[in-house]
Amino acid sequence: MDITILYEDPYIIVVEKSAGVPAQKDTTGDQSVLEVVKNHIKEQYPQSRNPYVGLVHRLDRPVGGIMVLAKTKEANQSLSAQMQNRTVEKRYWTVVCGKGREGVQKLQHYLKRYPKQNISKVVTFDVPRAKEAILTYKKIAEIKDQTEILSLLEIELKTGRHHQIRVQLSTVGLPIWGDTKYNPRFIKPKEWVSIALWAGFISFEHPKTKKTCTFHTKLPDIYPFNLFL
């Protein structure tokens, strides 16, 4: 299983998952991050038959990067409250098709989730169950690969909506490379590709010590990220 433990204490565990690994059990039956972490704790503490592991936040299956999980209910409540209060800082790297604008750009939309199709769409604020979605992006680099322009962006999420980054970037004409739901070029791929979206940074208050915890990873050495290494 492609999961690396970055940090662990009695209250939290921070891992880096590879693209393609589900955060929690899905219809495929493939082993998930949640299951791997539970098995890891069982190996450490054989007397614990069903250890508590709380999924504080999720990453879409095609997305790789950092995830934080709670090892106690109290830690889960604290971290979940931080997520709801928008005090957790999360940054992502992504490679998009197109020329991102210079400087820090703010995207603000209203999104509605359609569970049956497993997609989200931009709607007006008065649509029932519409939720506000806010992010900022900064263009790090730009390159011409064969016949297309690709841009490396750093994303900072202000809210956490279903497929938020993917939908909002596609809406402004910057679809993510490899996105089989929101990038027309990849909707019917000839072969499996990994979406170029990576959760590279997270910072939050430790649920017990109250100290600031910050974790980050390097840009993954996979295409198309490796074009910018």
Write the layout of secondary structure elements.
Elements: E1 3-8, E2 12-17, H1 33-44, E3 54-55, E4 64-70, H2 73-84, E5 89-97, E6 104-114, E7 119-123, E8 131-145, E9 148-157, H3 164-171, E10 197-205, E11 212-216
Determine the N-to-C terminus distance: 25 Å
Report low-confidence residues grouped into runs of 5 or more. Answer: none
The name of the CATH architecture is 2-Layer Sandwich
Number of helices: 3
Word description of this protein:
Strands 1, 2, 3, 4, 5, 6, 7, 8, 9, 10 and 11 form an eleven-stranded mixed beta sheet that branches. The protein has helices at residues 33-44, 73-84, 164-171, and strands spanning 3-8, 12-17, 54-55, 64-70, 89-97, 104-114, 119-123, 131-145, 148-157, 197-205, 212-216. The mean pLDDT is 93. With 229 residues, the protein is mainly beta. A hairpin with an 8-residue loop joins strand 3 (54-55) and strand 4 (64-70). The chain starts with a strand and ends in a 13-residue tail after the last strand. The chain has three helices and eleven strands; from the N terminus they run ββαββαβββββαββ. It has one domain (3-228): Pseudouridine synthase (2-Layer Sandwich), CATH 3.30.2350.
Jot down its keywords.
Pseudouridine synthase; mainly beta; 229 residues
In summary, what is this structure?
This protein has 229 residues and is mainly beta. It is built from 3 helices and 11 strands.
